[in-house]
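retry 2 of 3: previous attempt timed out while embedding 6-O-phosphono-alpha-D-glucopyranose. Reduced batch size to 1 and resubmitted. Inputs unchanged:
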Amino acid sequence: MVTRHQVLVASNRGPVSYSLGEGGELTAKRGGGGLVSGLSAVKGDAVWVCAALGDGDREAARRTGGVLDASDTGGQQVRMLDIEPEVFSDAYNGVANSVLWFVHHMLYQTPTEPVFGAEFERQWRSYEAYNAAFADALAEEAAEGAAVLVQDYHLTLVPGMLRERRPDLRIGHFSHTPWAPPDYFRLLPDDPDGGVGAEVLRGILGADRAAFLTRRWAHAFAECCAKLLGAEVTTAEDGQFAVVHEGRATRIGVHGLGADGDFLRERAHREDVAERMAALREQIGSEPADNPRRTIVRVDRTELSKNIVRGLLAYRRLLDDHPEWHGRVVHVAFAYPSRQDLAVYREYTEEVSRVAGEINEAYGTSDWSPVVLHVKDDFARSLAAYRLADVALVNPIRDGMNLVAKEIPVVSDGGCALVLSREAGAFAELAEDAITVNPYDIGATADALHRALTMDAGERAERTKRLAAAATALSPTQWFLDQLEALRS
Ligand code: G6P
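retry 2 succeeded.
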């Protein structure tokens, strides 16, 4: 008998990934994040539908028929879709990460980019096919009237496609990114018969509820629907709003995902984190022992929207403007490579290393490296840096939320001053106790770093306490359960 599920999650990246050894053995690696804790809190029958992302995943999907071993997934039922590699690459690299990600983060150098030609047309057809594969699998797995929570810009067409296949379902869509304002969003091809921009909006409007991380992104989505589709935006007395298009209403929700305080505090005090703190202290150097060097910490995926290079240039400017910091501060920058199939990400990764190297070359001495850069992803080392940080630098050009800004205050040992971009979603909740910056302004960011470094220890501790409280206001589990409840109500 086929089990049909009451709760379904769909996302490109699933809760587990596999690597394939030389002898053909598969090793599973479990991921974390809000969806993992949320889904594990669901009582009853739930399943997670995701794509096979690499050779290991594909092999695992083939050997198991796509239904993964629960011991690899922490007990969660997972269905992994083995999508044809060319189709997957067009959809993931071509459309999702080179176009939709760039639109929502407003990353294009518009005099030359983007160029929508024959290549994009093919990629877009692949994106449709990849979304259809998810819609088919969800339609198969869902019990009558089940709740389906579709995630992110990879899967914008799924709600509409799934509604056609299964009108009985409750369908939600959640965007983890910012949403572009209409004047930027409309650079997507949009002709009278539909076009890409309109297809994306209509796809999401196939959901009963479309949700976002902040009100800012939710409003931008509604404005795009109004301007591009001529949809009506209605607001109820309690401030809840909806987008009405072709006779159907899609409710709009906001759920500001928070940091997982209990998990982080426990995890950050394990032995492996203590070991990494000792190693980092060694690298930072603490001369003289009674007045250790200050640390400015950043932790990011190396990704263009994170603005790592401008962060390094601001640090360089700090050293220029304030020679008193020479030998007294270290910028601990963890920049973990991501999406390396794309040249633009590879080039950015190289640029980060180059600029960090130039700063060390120009200012470093025999016993002081102004920048300590690590590029190998290591969660325990990230937590070690969080605990040590005097200052956290979170300066994205645009960011759906930015959980690093929320995690650092939670695990900080001695209090940490937060320098935060006004373009991060987290700004909506943390602005009051952060030092906020325009992410493009290198001089202002350098000034903010100086202010953060010279902040009185008492004030810093007080602010960190308030930041931690704001950052944990909505736990990942509650974030997920709230969405589920709102979808069912
Ligand atoms: C962002 C997106 C997620 C994505 C993550 C990592 O947070 O909103 O959907 O999974 O980046 O990116 P990747 O391309 O490695 O999955």
